[in-house]
Amino acid sequence: MTGQHSRARETVASAAQYVLLGGFASTAAGISAQGLVGFARSNMGLRGPWPYLLFFALDGAAGVCAVLLVRRAARAEPGLAPRLAVWGLVAASSFFNWTHAPRRPAAPEAFGLMPVIAALLFEFCLREMRLRTANRADRTLNALRWLRPAERIRVQVCMAADQRVSAEEATSRVRIDAAARRLYHLRALLRAHEPAAGTDGLTARRIRRAERRAYGALIRAGFTEPLTAFAVLRQVQVMTQAATLARLDYGTADAARAAITSLISAAPATAPVPGPAHLAAQDATATETAVQDRIHAASLNGHRPGAGTPDRAVTAAGAAPAAGQQDDDQDPGDRDAELVAAARRIVVGSRHAGTRLSQIALAEKLRSEGHKVANNRLRWLAALSGLEAPQDGEPDTRASGGR
User: Fold this and answer.
1) Burial level of 241, CB count in 10 A (0-12/13-18/19+)?
2) By the 8 A CB rule, do 370 and 324 touch?
3) Which residue, of 180, 205, 356, 377, has the fewest CB within 10 Å?
4) Using the 8-state DSSP alphabet, how is residue 60 labeled?
């Protein structure tokens, strides 16, 4: 019963909203029509029915763009282009009304404000419609955000650019960007005055002020969180390498690949965990390649491909710590196949998460899953799992024994 009453109140409020909007918009459009028709007759010299066409060309076109904007809002789609068209036509209509208005106290201002008032009412109703359609309470900003008006405006711009982002996520992006810019500015000041034996009072004050601002920005961004620190430092690194990136040789992909590889990476422990669908894809890939890896590894370790236990594929479930313990009497070729399959799964997962792995980090992850990995086999495992490209002439370390 309470839900029915709430829906009934919402329906009545929506009906009243659109009735009032239609009434006020009609009044504003009627007054604007008087000014535009008079402007077309007096200033443009149009006769007959032509003066009325100016009103339809401006206010009518604005109405068409408003309808398109409403339809996009109903589908939860961005509508920047129709909104810009609406306000451009409203500005033109307001200017023409203001120039033709009688030169009496406040008359030009009144005529010029009529289209603006209608557009503002439409914007308020459109915002309510967007909030009701999207049903995203996490995209609302409370009034306390106005204590930092510059940050609030940047957050609103970020949410307007991406309709799927929440207010919290947009705020995090804005604060990370501000922290990176403050840190880069402080770094530039320190590097500019680093060679000097001493700095004057003005320079010292500028450095202290930049340091305070960078400190405050880092605290607001939550720099103590590992992922936030990674995002801030990576953005600062991109800022410092802007000139280098502009001078890269883009004839081949080698320079760009080297620049991307040199970017700061998050620690493996803080990397996001791949979703279930991605893990299933990794399992399928490991299943398909495990048999070939076993045969290849066994032949290079001095074992015949057909010797020992039958070929079997190892999935992510088999690589879990509880089920990944390998028996001492297991065939070395099977252990190599399991090891390579698990290493490939970890490498693919790290690439999907956008993080980088070193040979040591790969070995630690494998050992945490119950696998035995010898340090002198890390280069072989990195090459076979796709972590690193194998080098020509590299000695084979797989037959070194220890694991």
Assistant:
1) middle
2) yes
3) 205
4) I
Element (H, E) at 131: helix 107-134
**Which residue in this structure is represented by tokens 């490209």?**
389
Helix (H, G, I), strand (E, B) or coil at 311: coil
Quote the tokens at residue 62: 């604005």
Contact criterion met (CB below 8 Å) for 32 and 115: yes
Tens of pLDDT, residue by residue over 113-153, are: 888 888 888 888 887 777 665 555 566 677 777 788 889 89
Question: What is the rounded CA–CA span in Å between residue 281 and residue 96?
Answer: 63
Helix-helix angle 61-74:107-134, to 10 degrees: 20
Report which of 133, 94, 107, 98 is spatially closest to residue 14, judged by C-alpha positions: 133
Residue 312: per-residue pLDDT: 38
Name the residue among 342, 332, 329 with its Cα closest to residue 381: 342
> Which H or E run contains 285?
helix 276-300
Q: Is the pLDDT of residue 298 over 50?
A: no
**Residue, of 3 and 118, whose pLDDT is higher:** 118
Which of 188-192, 239-243, 262-266 is predicted with the least confidence, judged by mean pLDDT?
A: 262-266
Report yes or no: 296 and 396 within 8 Å, Cβ to Cβ.
no
> Maximum CA pair distance of the chain?
104
Alpha carbon of residue 16 to chain centroid: 38
Least confident of 113-127, 194-208, 215-229, 358-372: 194-208
Q: How is residue 175 annotated by DSSP? A: H
